[in-house]
Design brief:
Blueprint (H helix, E strand, L loop, with lengths): L11 H14 L1 E11 L2 E10 L4 H8 L3 H8 L7 H21 L6 H10 L40
Antiparallel strand pairs: 1-2
Length: 156
C-alpha cells in the first residue's frame, strides 16, 4: 500500500499497465468434465475469469478502495486521464458482473454486487406505501353456491 502523504497514481501508463495486469491475473484455467469415452471420464481445460472486484483492483493498484472510487468519480487532485482510466477499470469489473446476471446460479450475488458498488440504479422504495394498491378478488363460487375450494375444517 502507498504510504500516507505520498501521491499515488501519478503515471498514466503505469496505472493502465497495473489495471491490465489485475484483470489478466483474474484469468485462470480449470478442468471441465465433457463425457465418458471407452469407459474413461474425459476432461477438457477451460479458461475462465474469476470475479473482478473494486477492492481487488484497489489492492493491485496499491491504494484504498475509497480512494479508487473517489478518483474514478473525478474527485481529488488527479488529472482527467487518471480518473478516466480508473472509471474504465470500474466499468470492466461491472461488465463482468452484468454478464453474471444472466447465469441463474450467481444472478442474485451479481445484482447485490452491482447495487453495492453503485453500478446499478435501484428505485428507492417509499416508506409511506404511496403507489401501493391492493386488489381483492372474490373467491370462485360453485353451482351449489358454495366455495369452489372447500375451506379447511377441523374433524371431530
Amino acid at each position: 500500500m502507498a504510504q500516507r502523504g505520498t501521491l499515488a497514481l501519478t503515471d498514466l501508463s503505469k496505472l493502465e499497465k497495473a489495471i491490465d495486469d489485475y484483470f489478466q491475473s483474474r484469468v485462470s484455467t480449470r478442468m471441465v468434465f465433457v463425457g465418458v469415452e471407452n469407459g474413461e471420464r474425459q476432461y477438457e481445460r477451460e479458461e475462465f475469469m474469476k470475479p473482478p472486484t473494486i477492492s481487488g483492483l484497489a489492492l493491485a493498484l496499491g491504494i484504498d478502495r475509497r480512494t479508487l472510487v473517489r478518483y474514478a468519480n473525478g474527485e481529488g487532485t488527479r488529472g482527467d486521464e487518471l480518473s478516466q482510466a480508473l472509471s474504465r477499470a470500474r466499468l470492466r469489473a461491472a461488465e463482468w458482473w452484468e454478464e453474471a446476471l444472466a447465469v441463474r446460479e450467481v444472478s442474485n450475488g451479481a445484482r447485490f454486487w452491482l447495487e453495492v458498488s453503485g453500478e446499478l440504479d435501484v428505485e428507492e422504495e417509499s416508506e409511506t406505501g404511496e403507489g401501493f394498491e391492493m386488489k381483492v378478488i372474490e373467491p370462485a363460487v360453485g353451482d351449489s353456491n358454495q366455495l369452489a375450494i372447500p375451506k379447511w375444517e377441523v374433524e371431530e
